[in-house]
Amino acid sequence: MAITITGVHVFDGQRLTGHTAVRLAGGLIEAVGGPELLQAGDERVDGHGGTLLPGLIDAHIHLLPGAPRQALSFGVTTVLDMFSKPDTVSRAVAEGAEPDAADVRSSSVGATAPGGHPSMMYAPFPYVTGPQDAKAFVADRLAEGAHHLKVLYDDGAGGGPMRMPSLDVPTVAALVDAAHQAGLLVVAHVTTASAAIDLLPTGVDVLAHVPFDPLAEAQVEAIAEAGVAVIATLSVADGFPADGGGMPLLAEPELARRLGPAWSGVIQRQAQRWLPPQLPDFAAAAVNIGLLHDAGVPLLAGTDAPNPGTVHGASVHRELQRLVAAGLPPGHALTAATARTADVFGLADRGRIRPGLRADVVLVDGTPDQRIADTQRVTAVWKQGIRADLDAYLGSADERAGLAALRAQTDKVVAAVRDRLPQFARGGDDQRP
Q: How many CA atoms are closer than 13 Å to the CA of 288, on its beta-carbon side?
């Protein structure tokens, strides 16, 4: 049965249009217009003056069991995974093919040096020892179904708790060349301004994370001239308690309500975890976003969930708020989570409300093009024209599996850090979700 959603404002992925109705049929957006779209036999949905958005896209996550279902419950219809192991990816891709879960595109295993980030979370997995490994590494990721390639260029000097091995620039260049020959986009993990500039000559397509240290004017210009996109991931700041001691995600009533008691409890306990003495400069990261936006650099909304303080789906809304606080107009922030990410990652069938594209749409109560926090007020989600049950994830086996996997991953990281940082071992034992 076709569905016609009426009485809405329509944000098409780039701008607010004058349309007030959208008709969905056969899993696609059939038409965009006004009341005349409603046909006999259609299911009519009254939008009550809300706003219809394209399905949101999170440009940077790491998978947990059930993550695609949790993401969809917050209006995120596509997630881009930036490092997960093949068995996790295959399960998530299968899950994401179902109507009640977000679609999944993944890098599978990212390219990093032996013992490099994120070994503490995911080892064992294949490493890259030098340029000679590049072609075989890329071929193996293609065999695993990778949609893009992730490379990690980070020696821990950007504010992390410890130094670590890292790929060098010639190895990244070889990986980029092999990936491009195979038709893969390359996403590069960097955390500092100097690292970002180091990699521009290699031809990477996307920088994952805005630098946490200040970008100089010449560096901003270089990034803009290189034509790379930047995944902001300002949401990682939500992993640290606010001035009053509470976690930022839980301070948003609409998001906290949808999180449910189990995930809310995890976030509350993460506020009590051990923290390194030197934290990233989140104020500098926000300033960098404003500078990059002013320079015309394509900015993408990504959360890096499930880092501490972040949750699949929910944290996209916090990311949008942080982008606006950093200087983006609300409409530009919405584009960063819809059309722009779709364009950068070659997802030509989504990211916009346009006839012929996937019927991935989100109805929110409010006007997020004016007040970005209104994206949190999700009232309905359709993926390929099928309306999702927004309450199905809470209390489900998927939720329990995701929490168990996060606990196991956290235990692994805690054990590894304790081995290397004696002061951490004295910081208390309650580190788990």
A: 28
SS3 state at 100: coil
Q: Under a CB-based contact definition with an 8 Å cutoff, are residues 339 and 281 in contact?
A: no
Torsion angle, alpha carbons of 64, 69, 71, 74, to 10: -150
Q: Quote the tokens at residue 230.
A: 């930047």
For residue 46, what is the enclosing H or E element?
strand 43-46
**Host H or E run for residue 80:** strand 76-81
Cβ neighbours for 261, distance < 8 A, ≥ 6 positions apart: none
Q: Alpha-carbon distance 397 to 417, whole Å?
A: 30
End-to-end CA separation in angstroms for the chain: 43
- For residue 54, the 8-state DSSP code is E
Q: What are all long-range contacts of 388-392, with beta carbons under 8 Å and residues at least 24 apart? A: 388/72, 388/73, 388/99, 388/100, 389/100, 390/73, 390/258, 391/73, 392/69, 392/73, 392/100
Contact 238, 309 (CB under 8 A): yes
List, for residues 178-212, the tens digit of each pLDDT value.
999 999 999 999 999 999 999 999 999 999 999 99
Q: What does the pLDDT read at residue 34?
A: 97
pLDDT at 24 over 90: yes
pLDDT at 430 over 90: no
Rounded to two decimals, the pTM is: 0.95
Say if CB 137 and CB 182 are below 8 A apart.
Answer: no
Radius of gyration of the chain (CA): 21
Q: How far is CA 11 from the centre of its chain?
A: 21
281-302, pLDDT tens digit by residue?
Answer: 799 999 999 999 999 999 999 9
* CA dihedral angle for residue 377, residue 378, residue 379, residue 383, rounded to 10 degrees: 170
Match 């007040």 to its residue by tokens. Answer: 371
Query: 248-261 pLDDT, tens per residue?
Result: 999 999 999 999 99
Q: How confident is the model at residue 412 (pLDDT cuts 50, 70, 90)?
A: confident
Q: Are 24 and 54 in contact (CB under 8 A)?
A: no
What percentage of residues in the chain have a pLDDT greater than 70?
94
Quick one: angle between helices 134-143 and 169-181, nearest 10?
A: 50
